[in-house]
Amino acid sequence: xxxxxxxxxxxxxxxxxxxxxxxxxxxxxxxxxxxxxxxxxxxxxxxxxxxxxxxxxxxxxxxxxxxxxxxxxxxxxxxxxxxxxxxxxxxxxxxxxxxxxxxxxxxxxxxxxxxxxxxxxxxxxxxxxxxxxxxxxxxxxxxxxxxxxxxxxxxxxxxxxxxxxxxxxxxxxxxxxxxxxxxxxxxxxxxxxxxxxxxxxxxxxxxxxxxxxxxxxxxxxxxxxxxxxxxxxxxxxxxxxxxxxxxxxxxxxxxxxxxxxxxxxxxxxxxxxxxxxxxxxxxxxxxxxxxxxxxxxxxxxxxxxxxxxxxxxxxxxxxxxxxxxxxxxxxxxxxxxxxxxxxxxxxxxxxxxxxxxxxxxxxxxxxxxxxxxxxxxxxxxxxxxxxx
Length: 388
Ligand SMILES: *Cc1c(COP(=O)(O)O)cnc(C)c1O
Prior knowledge:
2 domains
């Protein structure tokens, strides 16, 4: 019997080795891994450059403290700001911590401007911003908040796609709108570019901040470093995590100058955040991701995968209702409960993971090859053909 607290419904399978897009279970069976730790291992398993980078750093220094200047952290922050909208970065260890810090920074901005009551954050119902007390009430999905009251106040909500509901929910106390640029756990729901442009305009008009949670859709997943770049807009605050460490836990919040002005020494902190070992992973990811052609390839493979999945949908319209997503953040929305389908895929050596709304998420590593995509399509076709 397991001594692990039962907070997950785990598949009865364990792995002891991985290489690129593939995982090997303890019996030696090989799987095509299109979970990749839920969009975390953006370079797949056992990537040589990541291994070397972490190994090299592990012999020098693992951890000091943010009481000192950490050159590896300075370097990653510089690279993240040079490549993006941001002027400053605060390192954390996970996505929930990063989104929670984003909420803190938004509130603190208005506090520092003499508006302490302007502190409410407007979010989408049934979104996903993490599992801390504040972030579950920001996400507002029944399953995540049930039994964890009293409710953490300070969040208002609107429904995905409900433009009028959104405008109506903004009050004089609203400090920021916080949404995932592409909703991951919520079912791979892409906010269209024109809506992102509209969101930015609305925030400007109402003089409030725009927080885009790119924990899942950021770091190249959508085909651009950040998913909001497709819409050519600039948010004020962006929490990131998952992909930035390539499997090493890293979280971070990127902010512009305006938001940074509300923070000063002592207002936020993290013991582990941005330690040298973690930063060696983050810097290695940046080395690879900004190599010429890397993101171009994500776009190319993403388009190919999407169009082939749509062909599959047309071939099996009774099983697949819709194909969703952008870049290599893709999902098959099924007509019925997707869990048995995911189990069938697993039996055929393809690992996928669920999301809300009957969605099967397909999250290959960003350096996946066309042959590996074709292999997944073959398995998907076979499972569809024999389904029910
Ligand atoms: C995964 C995720 C989080 C939470 O990240 P953790 O590292 O699990 O705390 C937050 N926001 C989004 C959009 C996510 O996908």
